[in-house]
Amino acid sequence: MFIYGIESSIYVEKKKAVALLSGGLDSTLAVKIMKEQGFDVKALAIKTPFCDFDCGHGCGFKVMEVADRLGVDIKTAYLGDEYLEMLKNPKHGYGSGMNPCIDCRAMMFKLAKEYMEEIGAEFVITGEVLNQRPMSQNKKALKIIEKEAELEGKVLRPLSAKNLEPTEVEKKGIVDRDKLLSIKGRSRKIQFKLAEELGIIEYPNPAGGCLLTDPQFSRRVRDLFEHNDKPSINDIELLKVGRHFRIDNAKLIVGRNKDENEKIEALALKDDILLEARDYKGPIGLVRGSIDEEGLRLAASIVLRYSDAPKDKEGVITINREKELQILPINDNIISRYRI
């Protein structure tokens, strides 16, 4: 504009907000809604050992692409050993499996708070929908999570805001509450319609997500914690591949295909034992933990069972590709006793 013949420009800096972005539809919508209110949204994507944004499936698989399409800067963070420590005994317990939803969200919110303070943002945005998830998205849980993260009144949930108490930015008029929504429950019809209206075409199915809700995977985690006081990220990565068997204080992981065999071999540590059929195509087996000769023979018989070797004849299993052991494949009626 011109003032007394002098050209002048007035620049008003946009208010900043940090959005927890998973790559799923709900968090995508939350970001889009707040951008349309004129906020400078900075995304934060958080990876745990059980819920990746680069694992090849689930919401987080394409989170970088989602951020790019939304036109927002994205920062990534990782919760590793500290997450495992929490998982052993979560303050607020587990969900249907080994999923510590409330404690997990609180850890993520703490990271969001740090980032918010680092960049001078006003508040945190999430795509949470009231009562969509029974454990972590009811009103009581939402309040607990905010309190644990010291973010009370600073977490805005645009999709469900009108079902919740106004946040600080709503009370101050920084955010227009009238432009927020009142979605609740598990139906996603409103989200699908809103996505269409906002031109959001690509988004993943809600399936996928956290491995800790899967019953079989939860059994594996529980077994690991029962036999290992200090599990490592490497131990967790092994839980994601193969068939798992418990042989006293040792565990046997048997690959199911070429890719799993390669991953098992890549994850092997110096004290692990690798087992493989010498004369037949088949899996790699990895033994981790203390095992005696009888246990090793049992492990070898299981590995041979999943190879192309005849089920009624002895075969040779190599031990670390050096020693050899002649053994019969285990009987199918017995193998279930050891499966995790």
Order of helices and strands: EEEHEHEHHEHEHHHHEEHEEHEEH
Radius of gyration: 26 Å
Termini gap:
72 Å
Q: Which percent band covers the strand fraction?
A: 15-25%
What structural class results from the helix and strand content?
alpha/beta
Can you describe what's shown?
The chain is elongated, with a radius of gyration of 26 Å. Helix 4 crosses helix 5. The protein is 34% helix and 17% strand. With 340 residues, the protein is an alpha/beta fold. A 6-stranded antiparallel beta sheet has the order 8-9-11-10-12-13, sandwiched between helices. Strands 5-4-3-6-7 form a 5-stranded parallel beta sheet, with helices on both faces. Strands 1-2 form a two-stranded antiparallel ribbon.
Please supply descriptive tags for the structure shown above:
340 residues, alpha/beta, Rossmann fold, 12 helices, elongated, disordered N terminus
Topology:
Layout (H helix, E strand, L loop, with lengths): L1 E2 L2 E2 L8 E5 L4 H12 L3 E8 L15 H8 L2 E6 L2 H8 L12 H19 L3 E3 L13 H10 L6 E2 L11 H4 L17 H9 L17 H13 L5 H7 L3 E5 L2 E5 L3 H10 L5 E5 L6 E6 L3 H13 L9 E5 L3 E5 L4 H4 L5
Parallel strand pairs: 3-4, 3-6, 4-5, 6-7
Antiparallel strand pairs: 1-2, 8-9, 9-11, 10-11, 10-12, 12-13
